[in-house]
Amino acid sequence: MFREEDSIRVELTYSPLSITANTNFVKSPKAGAVVMFAGCTTRDSFNDLPVKSLTYQSYPPLALRTLFSIASEVKAKHDLTAISIIHRLGTVPIGEESILILASSSHRHPAFAGASEALELTKEKAEVWKLEEFAGEGMEGVWRANRDGVMGVKMEKGDGEEAVSQANTGGGGEDVRGRAEGAKAAEKAADGEGADVSVGD
């Protein structure tokens, strides 16, 4: 699932991430610098608990729209030649990349700044949730927001949208309800009420 135009590519995939293919996308004779961030957020511990794996979920039409908006904003702000944001979905084993962000520009400073800002905005805004599963007897998985250092809340079967929304922010509140409403609106749009996201595979 991807969207690509104007030297911008955003993608959600269940496959292992290809550093080579995505580097080739942002490379250009006009670009003297290519910067890449590879996020192995599937570290083997969190809050001193042994992590077995991470499972990422998303609502692709809404998430792709958000990622493309982020990439467009960052590309214009830092005068980038090209930018790519790729996020993996599904279960990601320990040690594998879950996100790649690549930016190219005529000089290194805009490329570094653009890649860094794209990462922070993706963490802040993209509609991606993750289930952190812990190793050990009696350990249960915990959904949490795709944020750094934010412990999630346990989800019970049947908790539904409220629990997912709480996991997305680490606790609830107005931002939770707003995201849930946004997801509903995007789903209606994708069902034929004005969706404008181009999705490939």
From TrEMBL:
GO BP, sorted A to Z: Mo-molybdopterin cofactor biosynthetic process
InterPro entries associated with the record: MoaE_sf, Mopterin_biosynth_MoaE
Stored SUPFAM superfamilies: Molybdopterin synthase subunit MoaE
Chain spans, region Disordered: 156-201
Basic and acidic residues composition bias: residue spans: 174-191
Pfam family, one: MoaE
Name the record gives this protein: MOCS2B
Originating organism: Coniosporium apollinis (strain CBS 100218) (Rock-inhabiting black yeast)
